[in-house]
Specification:
CATH topology: TIM Barrel
Shape: globular
Helix content: 10-25%
Order of helices and strands: EHEHEEHEEHEEHEE
CATH superfamily: Metal-dependent hydrolases
Largest sheet: 10 strands, mixed
Low-confidence stretches: none
CATH architecture: Alpha-Beta Barrel
Strand content: 25-35%
Strand order of the largest sheet: 7-6-5-4-3-2-1-8-9-10
Radius of gyration: 16 Å
CATH class: Alpha Beta
Number of domains: 1
Distance between the termini: 15 Å
Length: 232
């Protein structure tokens, strides 16, 4: 993809849930489903909890699946997936007034922060699905979920247009996909994030790929839909 680097691009799913929040998978079932679908890795991003991470990492090692520790800050004002497991930010302190500060702290401690499904229509069990965070977060976020769920969802068109506008204006945001994976079901219409990883495809190298902008959104056949327009 970026021919001047030595990275190898692997398919990842960066937005997953288990029964530790509102998903149907156990951590083992999630890792097994990822392996069955040919993914190289996943990020476990349960809503406001990381209690399933240790089991998922352990099973991932057993199955040869990279598991990135994570959490989805699920607030009334929007959702942010925070990957890495390095930071100490309490999701309950995240609000429009504090979001940029909290993201900045998480990133400074070694995590990456990605705005999730920014235009999803909210409903009673998904309060805050649509982002209402101030524009200043785009100066501190690491990535932007350009496509979420089914690729044809019309809200993805709004997200794509905003992403292209932001990056054209110089914002350094890695393009990612999030299936928002909650359980078994059809794979038709979904996508993956391709991560350009230098070296061993482990969690830390996956995070570095996101920071460096070695990412692209692709359909399930590997056809690229949008890629990050910068590399660090």
């Amino acid at each position: 993809m970026n021919g001047n680097d030595k990275a190898v691009y692997y398919p990842f799913e960066l937005h997953c849930h288990t029964l530790h929040s509102d998903g149907a998978f156990t951590p083992r079932e999630l890792a097994e489903a990822a392996k069955a679908r040919g993914l190289k890795g996943i990020a476990l991003t349960d809503h406001n909890t990381s209690t399933g991470v240790a089991e998922a990492v352990r099973v991932g090692r057993e199955l040869g699946i990279t598991v990135i520790p994570g959490i989805e800050w699920t607030t009334f004002y929007g959702h942010i997936t925070v990957l890495g497991g390095h930071s100490d930010v309490d999701w309950r302190t995240v609000s429009p007034a504090t979001a940029a500060e909290k993201i900045r702290r998480a990133v400074s401690l070694g995590d990456v922060a990605i705005l999730a499904h920014p235009y999803r229509v909210g409903y009673p069990v998904c309060t805050g699905g649509k982002s209402e965070f101030p524009d200043e977060i785009f100066d501190v976020l690491t990535g932007y979920e350009v496509y979420s769920g089914v690729l044809s969802d019309p809200t993805n068109l709004r997200a794509r247009d905003e992403y292209l506008s932001l990056t054209s204006a110089g914002k350094k945001l890695a393009a990612v996909y999030g299936r928002d994976w909650h359980g078994q079901g059809t794979d038709i219409g979904y996508g993956v994030t391709l991560l350009g990883i230098s070296g061993t495809p482990n969690a830390e190298n996956a995070l570095e790929a996101i920071r460096a902008g070695r990412t692209a959104v692709a359909d399930c056949n590997g056809n690229i839909i949008v890629k990050t327009p910068f590399t660090a």
